Amino acid sequence: MSPSRLPRPLRRLGRRLRHLARDQVALRRPGFRTTLEGKVFIIVTFLIGFAAYNTATNLLYLIFSMMLSLIIISAILSRSTIRGVRAERLVPTHLVAGEEGVIHLTVRNVKRWLPSLSLRVVDVLASGEALGLAYIVRVPARGSVRASYRVAFAQRGQWLFDRLVIATRYPFGFIEKSVAEPHRQEVLVYPPIVDLSADLSEAQLDLGEIESGRRGLGTSLHGLRPYTHSDPARHIHWKVSAKAGEVLLREFEREEKKRVTLFLDNVAPRTDPEISDAFERSVIYTASVCKFLIDRDYQIQLITQQGRVPFGSGPPHLGRLLRCLAIIELVVAEKVGPISLPATHAADSTSLCIQWSSAPPPRGFDQLIDTRGWRPEGLMSPLFPHSAAESRVKAGAA
Q1: CB 393 within 8 A of CB 194
Q2: Same-domain status, 311 and 237
Q3: How much is the pLDDT for 395?
């Protein structure tokens, strides 16, 4: 017998079963929970039913049947509300530790006729921690609604989102139906940036401009050459021209920003809270130095024990530096020897070493910055409860 010849109730039951199976496969983790209000209501319902059975009172039977029907209707409507609902997450390319970021959610209702009401969308990390919550009053049939929530990550690194849990207590709040939709996604959290203008001025680092030895825009005299009609008249050297008997033009030497090599040692003999705290301070300081120099058009190179970020400048290069500092980890080594300047450094760059541990002083560096006593000022993080007023940056020649 073909499906079109089946009785209408059987065809309707078949469609219902197919929809139910499709929802179970798509949502994967259906959940059911009776709320505290629901438990109290169920207990009162059965007490009234027991009293109606003992007293044979028609009014109690009527009240019992009405309360029992409310429980059944609550289960049916909550299931109908949660069915056919899909959720998606949109996260920024990166966030900054200690600063609030916005996570956007899109909730879609694929049902043909019925809307979905009173939805709560909970974002859950891979560790099982609930990160954020968004409440949506109504999602129309075949429509979508956008929502968002704010979140602030306490530490840098890669954070993994695991799933989106969609829950509802519609209509009476007796039963909570929920579904967990897998939506794994990674977000990169950069280390926080602090203002180091005063600290770097106090350290008196030699980070000035150098002359390139080539013609270009600058203030130093590179040489003289005969004047042509296309040259600006303001660059004519009148005194030398009067002596030489011909019009000579001044050529200037192009100035270039000095290149800076930053070295952050990420090797320690052991890991404990004190060492981890000092290393995190050094990472924040290194990121802040990178931001300070990139804003002033310097070329920066970052070297660690695990790799190197080559020279570059501008905001895109700052993003590469911050990505490296966001995922850098402390490596444990039994023997930690004296630090020496890696062979990948540039001879024409200023070499700065970020000293965060009590290891022997490094060799071959132009400048040593000790961050052991430095505390980031104004940084809202549980790792750094103190302020920068308690200690300042120590700097001295290596």
Answers
A1: no
A2: no
A3: 33
pLDDT digits (tens, 9 = 90+) for 28-56: 455 778 889 888 999 999 999 999 989 88
Residues 155 and 184 in one domain: yes
Termini Cα distance of the chain: 91
- Helix, strand or coil, per DSSP, at residue 82: helix
Residues 293 and 372: their CA atoms lie apart, in Å, by: 22
Closest CA to 127 of 89, 177, 163: 163
Nearest to 387 by CA among 396, 375, 395, 374: 375
Both 301 and 288 in a single domain?
A: yes
The region, left, alpha or beta by phi > 0 then psi within -120 to 50, assigned to residue 54 is: alpha
The 8 Å CB, 24+ separation contacts for 268-274 are 268/330, 268/331, 268/332, 268/333, 268/336, 268/357, 269/332, 269/333, 269/334, 269/335, 269/336, 270/332, 271/330, 271/332
Given a contact cutoff of 8 angstroms between Cβ atoms, the answer to whether 359 and 340 are in contact is: no
Average pLDDT of the chain is: 79
pLDDT of residue 398: 32
Quote the pTM value.
0.70
Alpha carbon dihedral 103, 106, 107, 112, in 10-degree steps, equals 180
- Structural domain including 247 reads 213-256
Asked whether residue 246 falls in the same domain as residue 284, the answer is: no
